[in-house]
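Protocol step 4 of 6.
Sequence for BURP domain-containing protein (Phaseolus vulgaris) entered exactly as in the expression construct, tag removed. Do not edit the line below.
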Amino acid sequence: MEFHILPIVTFLMLGVAASAALSPEFYWKSVLPTTPMPKAITDLLHPDWKEEKDGSADVGNGVNVGVEKGNQGQGGGTDVNVGGGNGGVNVHAGPKGKPVHVGVGPHSPFDYTYGASETQLRDDPNLVLFFLEKNLHHGTKLDLLFSQTSNAEATFLPRPLADSIPFSSNKVNDILHRFSIKAWSDEAQVVKNTISECERPIIKGEEKRCVTSLESMVDFATSKLGNNVGAISTNVKKESKWQHYKIAAGVKKLGEKSVVCHKEKYPYAVFYCHKSDSSKAYSVPLEGADGSRVKAVAVCHTDTSNWNPKHLAFQVLKVQPGTVPICHFLPQGHVVFVPK
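Step 5 output, structure tokens:
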């Protein structure tokens, strides 16, 4: 689903002084002068600042995964079936057999207080990739589908403008009115879902903030990690059909501290940023059967004991909370900050 409100946002932008001091790009460079801005960020700047689209791709609208235990590929790699896109995906969560159709409904899979229902596990196509850390190694095989990034991305607003717009469940009617969204529409429900997720209590060991501007994202990340940080995101050079990928040599741990910012569905760019005391970030090179290469980012959670026992990761991977480290790839458009 896309919000068709870019003309409205452009109009609102005219009310903000165009000085560099209010530019999200300028703020990034002033606070993080030695940190290159990842494409996931530059793609969401004001259209006048955007790089021309180059066929980059998302990891679907989300991705899911299951490990086929005992099915070893050539070279000892572990086979993993992954998929994404509008039609939902078949996933194996154990030995070969009947695949499981996995979905997460209207809730973000990165909200670990949320439990996926039977219906959502069966029917919802919005999927995200989860896998076990023991499979994060050279030779693991995956079936992946990368879909084209939409050209109608919600863009960042300068912080003064973003701060002037309500972002609260008790101001929903005002928000919908500002963006000419009908109260009964699917777009209105998306707005409500995102705000509800942002207001949900945190789990033990987590710090979170939903940021409504790039400046706020930078402030949150640096408040947790300091100013000497790197920022990375999954990078896909071109769209490809569903095909076999394998993890190439060169998996690299980026750090045992990180702030992960997940892109939310909203009329303008909003990210769910959180820091966990028990997570690690990795850079993971992937090689496709057609020769394409993906520079993916994975985050692994070493302590899941406080997650909802019905979270989709446990249901897909058939494991219990707190028993094994669980990882997920980040869809393109999401960002990880790590100390340098």
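Step 6, annotate. Residues 186-199 form the longest helix (14 residues).
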